[in-house]
């Protein structure tokens, strides 16, 4: 259970987190970018599962 065993899960989780923060920011362009980043992170995360 070393940290290196879970390293491939860190990048998609960061994308989902950053996407959520951009989605919450009250401007249409950042919200759209945030949704895109969240979707990319979710697809990436599911692919490695």
Protein architecture, described:
The chain is an all-alpha fold and 49 residues long. It has one domain (11-48). Helices cover 73% and strands 0% of the residues. It is built from 2 helices and no strands. The protein has helices spanning 10-24, 28-48. α1 (10-24) runs antiparallel to α2 (28-48). The longest helix has 21 residues, at 28-48. The protein is elongated, with a radius of gyration of 12 Å. 12% of the residues are buried. The model has no long low-confidence stretch (mean pLDDT 87).
Task: Looking at this protein, list some descriptive labels.
49 residues; elongated; mainly alpha; 2 helices; 0% strand; single chain
Strand coverage percent: under 5%
Give the SSE string: HH
Question: How widely separated are the two ends?
Answer: 16 Å
Radius of gyration: 12 Å
Assembly form of the protein = single chain
List unreliable stretches of 5+ residues.
none
Structural class of the helices, strands and pairings?
mainly alpha
Compute the number of structural domains: 1
């Amino acid at each position: 259970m070393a940290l290196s065993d879970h390293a491939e899960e860190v990048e998609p989780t960061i994308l989902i987190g950053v996407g959520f923060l951009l989605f919450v920011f009250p401007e249409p362009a950042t919200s759209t970018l945030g949704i895109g980043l969240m979707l990319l992170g979710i697809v990436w995360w599911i692919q490695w599962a």
